[in-house]
Amino acid sequence: MSSAGENLTDAMGLQFEGHHRGGLLGGTFRDPSGLPVVNVAGCPTHPDWVTETLMMLAAGELRPQALDALGRPRFYADTLIHHGCPKNEFYEYKASAEHLSEIGCMMEHLGCIGTQAVGDCNIRGWNGGQSCTRAGYPCIACTAPEFEEPGHGFAETPKFAGIPVGLPTDMPKAWFMALASLSKAATPARVAKNATADRIEVPPTLRKPRG
User: Fold this and answer.
1) Model-level pTM?
2) Tens-of-pLDDT digits for all 211 residues of the chain?
3) Which string of DSSP letters, residue by residue, matches 40-72?
4) Whether residues 144 and 94 fall in one domain
5) Is the peptide bond before 44 cis (omega within 30 degrees of 0)?
6) Is residue 5 part of a domain?
7) Whether residues 73 and 89 fall in one domain
8) In the chain, how many domains are there?
């Protein structure tokens, strides 16, 4: 990416330099309608986000309050990538994949930060329903400023004393640790076995519904 590494092109945003207001037009820029720069983020950005934003602009329905603090349209930025992720059962039990080919949660070992990244990728889907996590690759938060230089490999989870550094949005560290410990202790054998497999090896137990 042109803004990564030494940034030889002096690339910058129109209204932000990373997380800081500024950029080419300055942090106080507003167009005649009162809108700041609209940042339809993503690498690549979802085509539906582009068309929906343009439709809202054409209809005069895009107001400043429809944008988040980074100028991203809230119709997708108020959602986390985690929402609708097909690996959520594994996440709930902290049943983790160890390699990219496995179907467990990728947060603990493989760098996934879908619990912190904004976007409705797992709800809206790409090309008929796909997303990074549905395809087996960790979310790298490509809708966030400075995602291109995380300071570690995209498929690596930085840890301190064995604990992932990046915790879910709005989750206090102590709560996460307590819940993670309980979840791991309660992990069904089916979930634990499937987490480190490249396909479902143990199907759910067939039981007659009660009632």
Assistant:
1) 0.87
2) 566 667 777 778 899 988 889 889 998 999 998 999 999 999 999 999 999 999 999 999 999 999 999 999 999 999 999 999 999 999 999 999 999 999 999 999 999 999 999 999 999 988 878 999 999 999 999 999 999 888 889 999 998 777 787 788 888 878 888 888 889 899 999 999 999 999 999 999 988 888 7
3) ---TTPPHHHHHHHHHHHHTT---GGGB-TTS-
4) yes
5) yes
6) no
7) no
8) 2
